[in-house]
Amino acid sequence: MKRKSRIMTSLLSLLLIGSLILSAEIGEIALAQKPVPVKNADGTTTTPGIPNEKYGSKGTVDETTDARGRVTKRVWKDRRGNTMEVEKTKYGMGNEKEVTTTLYNPLPNGKTEVGRETVTKTDVVGNEILTETTIYENGKEITKTKTEIDRRGKKRTYRWDRAYGEWEEVDANGTPVISGQGGSSAAQGFAVAREASGGLDTTIFSTPRGKIRVNLPNDMAAGDTISGTVVAEPEGKNQNDRAQNEGELNGYVVELEKQQSSSIQRNITLAIPVAITTSTYMILKDKKGKEVARTPVPVARTTPPVEEFDLPTTGQQGRPVEVRGPLDGDSATTRISVGGNDLEILAESPRQVVARNPSGQPVGPSEIEVREKDQVVGGEFRTLGIQLSAPKLNLLRGEQTTLTVTVTGLEGLKESVPLELENKSSNVIQMSGGEVQRLTINSSQVQGGSYTTERPLTGVQPGAFSITGTVISSRQRPSSVKGADGGALTTGLGAQKAPGTPGYTICGAGCQLPATEQGSGRVRCITTNACKGRGTGCACHMFRRPIKSNKDYEHVENPEVYVDRDAGYDYVCRCVK
């Protein structure tokens, strides 16, 4: 009986415990199913603790609605009461909506912190027109991106540039996209333009601090070694402003085929890859390495070699002087002088070199001399000065003035000199006789070494205008050819024995600078197609001579064979057989 009584007592206890547990669960469910709405001061109503398993069992959501019953806020919590997600909704006049969703990351201590915030905007028909996402780490903003639909219905993606405090457009891979036309592009506040004249291909990058001008030869070809110049042109109200802006401009980097240079260097030497067949890009980057502008640069697949020097007969103060001939593309081995005054070399390719005739160069007849390594060529040369003036420089519509053109330096003129006038502001003024005019100056028109002509100008609309005058130079073969030491030389004017190396005959130009092996510093000569095309057996051999020496070059090695570079020697590649 006692045993039976104990069994009955145990059964009754189990039933009682089960009843209590069931009662507790029923009570919990009853409480969860009966959240109490709360009226807020702003007229909205919040219903807290609504059961929701979005973030696990026993999770809840607090829901707030406006007077029209629209949900304006939801707060999801886990079973511990930690906030996991907050969604806020703003409604427009129509059906437009802006939804801000904040997600929280769990922490080891059981708490949470902000991890991601997304703002989504939709139009009146429910189409998503903008999504902005911010990522946080340890409570700090790490990245911010947005996607929006522009007026044309195109989807665009941006990321926030914290350094500049502005949005930057990127593609699907996160690469910056900058706007532009014709292949050129520039970020906001920047611009890029190109000019081609006098043997130069000039790229002008405009920045908030001034301009960066990059001069390259206009005949670049695949496989060339070329030289150029990078020039900073700072803006500013005074010298201190310009000095400060120049420092900023010097921080920019110009990049061509992953080769970087800046205005600090000024003179640059670049290698154009053989694989390029039509064009490449010149890119401007700021001091943080961010691309701010780019423009295409034309590159020819092949260019016939130049075998003989071709010199200009006339030049203009402040303008480029173009010399054609067999060169190596390295401006460090080239000198050009006019009247005994050295000119600044702006660019060089294996076929031409361009230098600037300074604004202060004396006008009149003199001589030009070109030195390329071990050869010197020269000829007669005349520097001319051109002055353009007008009584009024800002005309109203229909108002007239007279342009006066004066050319100086024409003493003893025997041959005619072509002169071109161009109105670069035809939307502002009209020039009588045409907007581009080619004139010819004859000796009979010269008085006291000068020539003068006039052109009526008529205003089209108010504004400043620009007219240029340019001398068109004729060409000549060198009247003198000699070696650097004054001895007779005919390099480029016919076959000759390679100096100091019996048994080798120069085929002509066409070889590049010695190629350096990465890591070892060894060098070799690579035979180019230009050299091969000069005849059977022609190839690029390596020669050397002591640095700063006038001695003859000696043959070092055959084509394609690496040799150890001796720092005390100057190494060159020559097309010989």
Spell out the key features of this protein.
577 residues; mainly beta; Immunoglobulin-like; 11-stranded antiparallel sheet; 9-stranded mixed sheet; 44 strands
Give the domain tally. Answer: 5
Q: Helicity level, as a percent range?
A: under 10%
Main beta sheet = 11 strands, antiparallel
The first-to-last residue Cα distance is 127 Å
Inertia-based shape: flat
Q: Number of DSSP strands?
A: 44
Average pLDDT works out at 83
Low-confidence stretches: 14-32, 483-501
State which percent range the strand residues make up.
Answer: over 45%
**Order of strands across the biggest sheet?**
1-2-3-4-5-6-7-8-9-10-11
Radius of gyration: 39 Å
Structural class: mainly beta
Number of helices: 3
Structural write-up:
The chain is mainly beta and 577 residues long. The chain has five domains: 1-34; 38-170; 185-298, Immunoglobulin-like (Sandwich); 384-476, Immunoglobulin-like, CATH 2.60.40; 495-576, no CATH class. The protein contains three helices and 44 strands. A hairpin with a 2-residue loop joins strand 29 and strand 30 (375-389). The longest helix has 31 residues, at 2-32. Mean pLDDT is 83; it is low at 14-32 and 483-501.
